Amino acid sequence: MSYIYESPAGIIEIFSDGEFITALKFAEFSEKRVNRTHQHNIPSCVKNAMKWLDVYFSGKNPGKTPPVGLSGTEFQKTVLKKVSEIPYGETVTYGELAKSIASEAGKPTSARAVGRAVGSNKVLLLVPCHRVMGKGGKITGYSAGTEIKQYLLRLEMMGNR
Questions:
Q1: Which end of the chain is more exposed for a tag (fewer CB within 10 A), N or C?
Q2: CATH 3.30.160 fits 2-57, yes or no
Q3: Rounded distance, CA 145 to CA 114, Å?
Q4: What pLDDT is stored for residue 114 in this prediction?
């Protein structure tokens, strides 16, 4: 099932299997606004995600994320778990993330491979891939667009003061 959340950055569609948040993405269709009033029997994990998003978009650190169900290969899941550890208001580069993963795994990992794994993230915001930057802190691609990535980073920097 999917549920609609209206954020200052745009409409967010939350997907759940009833126990975990399985995807969270910025919706592309404005007609989804109408569906919010027709949402019934919202699972507690989705209610918790909506409360988390309320705090997040108020400019405060929302703390621990609701439970997410990661999908993908083992490598993708490893990378996304590492991305989940990036503190609110902080950023890392793909290269730094690759070095951290490589040192834990005991084998080399390229920034490019990490970038592809980060790009596979289906649970935006809850797995904060917007906190991963290109070399030298350059803002790089984001599935919801670089404008939203910049907005999220500014929001966190303001809330982290």
A1: C
A2: yes
A3: 19
A4: 95
